[in-house]
Amino acid sequence: MNIYFQEVKNYFRVTLIWIAALSLMSFGFLSMFGSFSGDVENMKHLLAGYPPQVLSALNLQVGIFFTAIGFFAYILTFIWLVGAMQAMNLGMGVLSKEIAGKTADFLLTKPVTRFSMLTQKLFATLTLLVITNICFVAVTMFSVNMFSKDPFDGYILFLSALTLFLVQLIFLSLGFVLATLIPKIKTVLTYTLPSVFGLFILGLFGNVLGNEEVYYFTPFKYFDVSYIIRNSSYQSKYLWLALGLTLVGIIIGYVAFINKDIEAAN
Amino acid sequence: MNVIETKKLTKYYGKSRGIVDLDLTIEEGEVFGFIGPNGAGKSTTIRTLLGLIHPTSGSATIFGKDIKDFGPEIREEIGYLPSEVFYYDGMKVMDLLKYSASFYKKDQKVIERRIGELAKLLDLDLKKKIDDLSYGNKKKVGIIQGLLHEPKLIILDEPTGGLDPLMQQKFFELLREENKRGATILFSSHILGEVQKMCNRVAIIKEGKIIKTEKISDLLENNTKRFKIEMNKEADKKVLEGIKGISDITVQGKEVNFLFRGHINDVTKKLATLDLLNLEVTEPDLEEIFLHYYK
User: Fold this and answer.
1) Rounded CA gap, A266 and A102, in Å?
2) Tens of pLDDT, residues B70-119
């Protein structure tokens, strides 16, 4: 368990920064709901003036936008974006430093199997994401409670906030598997930034074009708050896809890393 | 017991050869040298033994256990000192060494005491951050992390780069102490003077294959000596006629140079009959022998 504790320690400080960012986004945006919801009729007129494609691209669903949860749904996409960066940086970073052949000479020549090493590192990243999400969900529930004048369904809010964790799992797995497949990663951001933003923009295109097939290819479209509001659950096809992709990525990562030759660092 | 035994150990990177049919046997208590130029296969061999690289074919055992099936168990008793040392950013020396120690089943208190001893010997400040250390000091961290658990087998890959001569001396003393304690040492190096000083036996590797494995003493003894004699008059090749084992005779004025390999008394008896002003006999060092095998 020594690798587990060491990695949790290594990434703890940076995780606190991400927690602060996500919490501030949630609290900050929801605090605007209070002043905003007082002027609902004028806002509805204003939004009616926008072309539907713009509203679609911005993911603005007028019907739910004026409830606390609906309002929260709007910022959720950006929260997923930030959370995805955190998760992919974590999944990739925790492994790439060993694979770039540097600390691998230190770690893999110790009496530990590669399987154990990977498992401990993975659990360390999961621990940090769970801590992140506990804080995020708590802050979100607190904020909605504070700023919403109308009653709201706590379970639906919880399910909506939990989508962050599910999106993060996918990106954690993506970072993990790419770290095992890409030979020498000097800077994690070189891969995480384009991946996260690329998939995010793909989702936007899907919105604008109204093309639902595209949604399968981007985790940013797997969870839809209006669906959660209507059905008190996730769309099962997307939930299974999310969990399935996460698992497949991790398995590929394990197989690739266990069979990899670790070359000398230069 | 053979601590390391490889049987036709082979590694190909696609079509390029790493090592081919390597048969190596290292006995317990030996200090074994591994010499060869860049690309010969020294690092490949070492990294394969340590489980960093998967062999294409062949097999190897360490402490009688197969390296594929008993990796972690074997590594419990191996100390590895790589040529380049890299550690995690932001860690203090002591934290890294404690982390290193945490992988071993041995008593952590005993290990910590050993860390203290080694740090004192090598003059390393355990409280410093690794990022702030010079290359030589980072190397010392590498040495300590390789030895803190008193391993039965010490594998060194070009270990003295970055150490000043005084530190190098201390380091070799340290290795000698470890060897006296019973540790087997596998020493891979370019610096043939070190190999000559430290090792009992040496293997010369060329293009992925071992071309010679011999005791250092035999390697130096059985080899050609260079003679330079200065005679009291104009020299003539004929003076050395009839002596078995002489070659490469060159004459320049009063000076005669030649190479000799054979029974030394044959030469000294002949030289005793000559009127000499000067005599110089040089023994080739490992470098010359090495280059000879490489031509």
Assistant:
1) 8
2) 999 999 999 999 887 778 878 899 999 999 999 999 999 999 999 999 99
Number of independent structural domains in chain A: 1
Q: Which CATH code, of 3.40.50.300, 3.40.225.10, 3.30.70.890, 3.30.2130.10, is assigned to B2-220?
A: 3.40.50.300
Q: Is residue A91 part of a domain?
A: yes
* Contacting residues of A for B145, CB less than 8 Å apart: 106
Quick: pLDDT tens for B107-158.
999 999 999 999 999 999 999 999 899 988 988 999 999 999 999 999 998 8
Is residue B65 within 8 A of residue B5, CB to CB? The reply is no
Please answer yes or no on whether A110 and B84 come within 8 Å at the CB atom. Answer: no
Nearest-angstrom CA–CA distance, B163 and B142: 12
What superfamily does domain B223-294 belong to in CATH? Alpha-L RNA-binding motif (3.30.70.1560)
Q: What ranges in chain B are assigned the alpha helix state H?
A: 42-49, 71-75, 93-101, 108-122, 135-147, 165-180, 192-198, 216-221, 264-272, 286-294
Mean predicted lDDT score pLDDT of chain A: 87
Question: pTM of the full predicted structure?
Answer: 0.84
| Torsional class of B2: left (φ above 0), alpha (ψ -120 to 50), beta (otherwise) | beta
Task: Give which of A7, A105, A108 to mutate to test B binding, by max B Cβ within 10 Å.
Answer: A105
- Taking the CA atoms of residue A12, residue A17, residue A18 and residue A21 in that order, the dihedral angle to the nearest 10 degrees is 160
Residue A144 belongs to domain spanning: 2-258
CATH 3.30.70.1560 segments of chain B: 223-294
Which of A216, A200, A227, A197 lies closest to A58, judged by CA? A200
Residue with tokens 């003679």: B227
Provide the chain B residues 115-174 that lie in CB contact (below 8 A) with chain A.
145
pLDDT tens, residue by residue, A152-198: 888 889 999 999 999 999 999 999 999 999 888 888 899 999 999 99
Which regions of chain B carry the CATH code 3.40.50.300? 2-220
* Tokens 């002949």 belong to residue: B270
Q: What pLDDT is stored for residue A39 in this prediction?
A: 67
Q: Is A264 part of a structural domain of the chain? A: no
Can you tell me the distance from the alpha carbon of A159 to that of A164, in angstroms, rounded to the nearest whole number?
9
Residue of A nearest to B50 (CA): A109
Structural domain contains residue A80:
yes
Q: Which residues of A touch B99 (CB under 8 A)?
A: 2, 6
